[in-house]
Amino acid sequence: MKKNLIILLLISIVSFISIKSASAQTAYDPVRHCYIDESTDECIPNTILSALPFLRIVPDARGAALGDAGIAISADPSAMHFNAAKLAMSEKEFELSTTYTPWLKNLGLNDIYLAYLSGYNKFDKIQAIGYSIRYFSLGELEYRNNTGDITGTGNPAEFEVALSYARKLSNRFSAGLTGKFVYSNLAVGQRVDGIAIESAKSFAIDISLFHKTKFNLGGYKTKLNTGLTISNIGSPITYTKSTDKDFLPQNLGLGTSLDMQFDDYNSISFILDFNKLLLPTPVLQKDSSGTLRYIKFDGSPINAALHSFTDAEGGLTEELREISTSVGVEYWYDKQFAIRAGYFYEHPLKGDRQFLTLGLGLNYNVYGMSISYLVPTNNTRNPLDGTLRFSFSMDFTKEKFKE
Fold first, then answer.
1. Residue 9: pLDDT band by 50, 70, 90 thresholds?
2. Helix (H, G, I), strand (E, B), or coil: what is residue 239?
3. Parallel, antiparallel or unpaired: strands 354-364 and 367-376
4. Measured distance CA(383)–CA(364) in Å, rounded
C-alpha cells in the first residue's frame, strides 16, 4: 500500500500539469502577503517547485549534520555539491568519499535511497579537479492508473554525473566551474491521459567562488571563509514530447564560516548559509472561465533566475520568505574527533521544512567517517525522520599543499 501511494505520487509528477486549478475561492491579502483561502481565512502555501529536486538533497553526512550548511566550510570531497571552488584551497592532494542515505525509512521502505560518490585531485598549489556521481533509487514499484489497476512494474531512478575545475586566483580567493549531466527515469513506458512517459535528460553548470582570510580574534588563530554558488543552471526538462518544460532547481547560495583554533588540540567553527531558488514565484490568476489557476512562468532559465528576485506579489517580504537558512557548529578535538549540530529553517508558506541536526565525525589514519541524524521541529514530515546517514572517506595524500 505504501508503494502504491508513492506510485500515485510519481504519476502526478511525471504528468507535469503546469497549470493547476485552485480548489477554493481565493484572494490575495496584501497585509499578510499571501493568498487567502476565503473559506478558512488562512494563508495558502505558495511553495516554489522544480523538476529533479533530488539535485538539492544534501548528499553527505557532514553537511547534513550542520543543518544542511556547507558552502564555506573547509574543503572535503563533498565540496562538489556545496562549493567546488573550495577544492583549490585544500591542503590535501587526493580524497574520496561515499555516502549512503536511506529514504523514507520511517515508512518501512528499504529499497529507496540516495548514494553519493565524490572525490578530488590537486595537481599543484593552485588548481584541482573534482568529480561526483549521485544516484537516487526509488526501488522496485508497481505502476497503477487512476482507477487502481496495475499497469506494470519498474525500477525508477535518477542520477547526476558532475566534473569540476577549481583554481586559485590569489592566495585568498578561488573560483570553480562544474559541468553536469542529469538523467531521470520515473515511469518510462507508462502512459498518463494517453501520453507516453519518457526519460528526462539535461545538462547544467554550477559557478562557485570562495574567499578566506586569517586574523587573530581574542588571541586565537581565526579564519573567516565566505562562499557563493549559483547551481543547476541548465536546460528545462519534460517527461513527454511536450514543449512545455520544467526548470531544474536553480539555486543561489551564500555562506560563511568562522573557524577558531584555541590550541593544538581544540578548534570550533560557526557556520551560516542562505539559499534561494532562482525560480519564479507561482502566481494565481483567473482564466477565461473565472477559475483560479497557478500560472507557469514562460521564459529561459536565465530569465527565470533574474525574474525570481522581483516577481513575488508580496514584494520584498515574500521574496525574503523564499530564502532558507542553515546554521551549524562543528567542534574538532585533535583533528580526529568532531561533534556537530545544526538547524534548518524554511518559511511555513514556502516549504515549511524545519529541523535540528546532530552528528559525529571520526578520523583515523587515512580513514574518516561521519554520521548525522535529523530531528523535525514542526509537524511537517521529513523523508529523513529518524534516519542515520553515514559518510566514509579516504585520504590518499602524499604531498601537502600548505601555504
1. very low
2. coil
3. antiparallel
4. 31
Alpha-carbon torsion angle 3, 232, 200, 323, nearest 10:
40
H/E stretch holding 196 reads: strand 195-196
SS3 call for 54: helix
pLDDT of residue 15: 36
Cell of 393: 572517506
Residues constituting the chain: 403
pLDDT tens, residue by residue, 155-182: 889 999 999 999 999 999 999 999 999 9
Residue 352 per-residue DSSP state: -
Name the strand (E) or helix (H) holding 64.
Answer: helix 61-65
Cα gap 349→289, rounded to integer Å? 28
For residues 61 and 80, what is the distance between their CA atoms, to the nearest angstrom?
Answer: 14
Asked if 172 and 211 touch (Cβ cutoff 8 Å), the reply is yes
**CB-CB contact of 118 with 160 (8 Å):** no
Q: What is the pLDDT of residue 396?
A: 87
Q: How far is CA 283 from CA 3, 13, 48, 280, 321, in A?
A: 32, 20, 10, 9, 15
The domains of the chain are located at 2-395
Take residue 104 and report the three cell numbers written for it: 523514507
Q: pTM for this one? A: 0.88
pLDDT at 25 over 90: no
Residues 125, 168 contacting (CB under 8 angstroms): yes
Residue 397 has φ and ψ, to the nearest 5°, of: -65, 130
Q: Give the tens place of pLDDT for each residue, 231-282.
A: 999 999 988 877 778 899 999 999 999 999 999 999 999 999 999 999 998 8
Question: For the structural domain made of 2-395, what CATH number should be given?
Answer: 2.40.160.40
Backbone angles phi and psi of 14, in degrees to 5:
-70, -20
The count of other CB atoms within 10 Å of the CB of residue 124 is 11
Residues 6+ apart with CB under 8 A from 398: 93, 94
Collapsing DSSP to helix, strand or coil, 148 comes out as coil
